[in-house]
Amino acid sequence: MPIRQLPFDYALRNLGRSRTRLAASLLGSMLVVVLILASGGFVRGMQRTLVQAEGLHENVILLGAGSEEALERSQIDAASAGIAAASISGIKQAGGVTYVSPEINMALPLRTEAGDPVERNAVLRGVRPVALLVHPAVEIVAGRPPRPGEEELMIGELAATRLDLPAERLAIGRTLHFDNRDWTIVGRFSAPNTVMNAEIWLPLTDLQVATKREATISSVVVSLEGGRFADVDLFAKSRLDLELSAVRESDYYASLAAFYRPIRVMVMVTAVLIATGGILGGLNTMYAAFAARVREVGMLQALGYTRRAVALSLGEESVFVAAAGAIIGVGLGLLLLDGLAVRFSMGAFAITLDAPVVLAGLAGGLLVGVVGAIPPAIRCLRLPITEALKAH
Amino acid sequence: MRIRHLASLTLLASAGLGLAACSGGEEQASTAGGNGTAATAASAEIMLAALPDGAVGVAAAKPTVVEGDAVVLRGRIGGTRAPMTGESGIFLIMDPSLSPCPPDEGCPAPWDYCCETPDTKLANNATIQLVGADGDQLTADFAALGLEPMDEVVVVGTVGPRPNTDVLLVKATGVHKVAGG
Fold it and tell me: A368-392, pLDDT tens digit by residue?
């Protein structure tokens, strides 16, 4: 037998009875959503940057045996790149260019100018022009690549965040100071959702001279086409004189992502705790709202509306307010948080409010509405009708 | 009526955002997948039941053998922290006369030989690549074949390219496990 429902208008009109309470409920739901978006976007941005799923080619990294977990510690013979190009079959080639990129990866302190007392830790990558082919995620968005011997640099979009400098300080034409020289920024590149986005790139030979390591490099990145990882691994394991190890680029960054997993877990746990606090806050507001209406609820039951119909109406109020707060929260989150750069030890990443994060935020907001209504509604409806009608 | 419209709009907006969240922002799958043709897996037949005759240690063979020579090589699986790669069907061996590093040396693993100098390691190591009868590279489930680091083995195969005397690659068609590590 269908139950007699209270009109939806009834639930909505009740929202306007106390504007303060309405504002508090809206704010509570909104805050929960914003916090979920912030933490979810943080975790998502860090994960996407570290895993680099979007930026990866069919690349294999040749690095020093024993340095498989940190490219910055790797040192291999600079001749390894040429030997690898000649020895490994199935390397991608286009336009006469073999996709083998010798690189130096290192963290180096630098200053904004010679007299600046503050040293900032930058992540530098010494490359040859072939690096732009081997790393297709990297796109030059302004200026041009740096030329060897000219003391020129190219910076990533998030390099300013990494260095804790305003973006305009790293505009094209400005300089940075290291190795007792000023280096001119001649270009800017974008490599979204990769650790490269926070790096500073310069010619390989210039970095070799600056760091006095003309005979060694950090790694050789090889793009495969038709070749297999096994071919590169065979090269690394047969040329034991070069002391190389072969790692898929995806596996290398996956291992780094695993290293930061405890941080992501901590952020999510914090978000859950805060969201729980938000739900309890919403619950408290609902308790106050419903407690003042015990008599009204008794009257509705006396008129013939079942407990279930009344509970449904109370739930409609709560969910509607929560939904409105959730929408405002999502709007604020997208406006203020999406793309916000965050610095961490490996560089920087951007908070990413993609579909799963937005969905989680909305779901969290609606949960505030649903869960926040249940205990107060139960409390209201528990009383017998006669006692409810006598309540103050 | 105005309230009903507002309510409808709000709920529609929530649903719309939810649907947009569901449909948009699809993740790209990792692009670092397989490439090239798949290799055949080494079968248990590659493991030889009987000890092959005429086995020599890596240190004795390395200075003299040339590409194309048939060899029977004896060694202990090890030489780096990860001396075996199943996906490539490759493992490294060290001359059996070279003892693994004692625990107090602090090596990540006893088969790492981190206590030895690079020159000593180069003089005593070799790379073993499992190949089929047609010479094509095989993949290997070393655990299923019963091989692990520190195992002493004798391999039968052919010497591969030797760009210099430090490099000894043997394309092995048979492996005999002498003793476990």
Answer: 888 877 877 777 777 777 777 776 6
Phi, psi of A302 (to 5 degrees): -65, -30
DSSP alpha helix (H) spans, A67-163: 80-87, 131-134, 159-163
Looking at chain A, which residue has its C-alpha nearest residue B138?
A: A230
| B29 assigned to some structural domain | no
A228/B39 Cβ within 8 A: yes
**Is-contact A91 A85, C-beta < 8 A?**
yes
C-beta atoms of A230 and B11 within 8 A: no
Decide if B175 is inside a domain. yes
Please check whether residue A57 touches B, CB under 8 A. Answer: yes
User: How much is the ipTM here?
Assistant: 0.76
Q: Are the C-beta atoms of residues A148 and A203 closer than 8 Å to each other?
A: yes
The domain that contains B85 carries what CATH number?
Answer: 2.40.50.200
Which residue in the set B24, B37, B88 is minimally distant from A233, CB to CB?
B88
B67 is a domain residue: yes
For A61, name the nearest residue in chain B, comparing CA atoms only. B32
Confidence (pTM)? 0.76
Number of domains present in the structure of chain B: 1
Residue B15 lies in a domain: no
Q: Could you tell me how many CB contacts below 8 A there are between chain A and chain B?
A: 138
Which residue range forms the structural domain that includes residue B55? 40-179
What confidence tens digit (pLDDT) does each residue in A301-310 have?
888 888 888 8
Which chain A residue has its CA at the smallest distance from B118's CA? A241
Query: Taking the CB of residue A316, how many other CB atoms lie within 10 A of it?
Result: 22
